[in-house]
Amino acid sequence: MRIAVVSAPRERRGIPDYVKALAKGMESMGHRVDVVDAWTEDGMRLPGYEYIVVVAESISFFSGKIPEALGKVLSAGSSLGGKKSAAFVKKGSLFLGRALSNVMKAMEKEGMNINWSDIILNAPHAEALGKRIGA
Q1: I need a surface site. Which of 30, 112, 119, 134 has the fewest CB within 10 A?
Q2: Is the pLDDT of residue 135 over 70?
Q3: How far apart (Å, rounded) are the C-alpha atoms in residues 48 and 37?
Q4: How far apart are CA 2 and CA 118, in angstroms?
């Protein structure tokens, strides 16, 4: 299966280790995985994937808000309606539930069908989660 992993860390600093570990877990199960950085890419190629995984961080420790770059990259990829997807949030905030809810709202706004959501604790946990996608 072709999977896109959309990474939306709180600031522009490249792809975090836990996102790379998530992608590695999916690749170990035989999937073709591409990582899309929400800060630097436009999302125009997202409709070409069968499954879309969104991984975000809340913008601060005391907030459930997510980076606005995530909404921009998802809205740029037209015809995402009905795409199977998963939503993940990296642990590191007091309001993880609110952050995960905000990620899912951004995805549902584009018509995506979210069939899994979870909180990522660290890179090994992310790799284990990646092995469960599409299994």
Answers
A1: 30
A2: no
A3: 16
A4: 21
Condensed to tens digits (0 to 9), the pLDDT of residues 32-91 reads 999 999 999 888 889 999 999 999 999 988 889 999 999 999 988 678 888 999 999 999
Q: What is the residue-wise DSSP string for 12-63? A: SS---HHHHHHHHHHHHTT-EEEEEETTT---TTGGG-SEEEEEE--SSTT-
Q: For the whole model, what pTM was predicted?
A: 0.93
Average pLDDT over residues 96-103: 94
Exposure on the CB side of residue 124, measured as CA atoms within 13 A: 0
- Residue 113: strand pairing partners: 84
Q: Are 31 and 134 in contact (CB under 8 A)?
A: yes
Whether the Cβ atoms of residue 3 and residue 134 lie closer than 8 Å to each other:
yes
Residue entry with tokens 């409709």: 47
Residue 74's closest CA among 99, 98, 53, 93? Answer: 53
The CA distance from 9 to 13, in Å, is 8
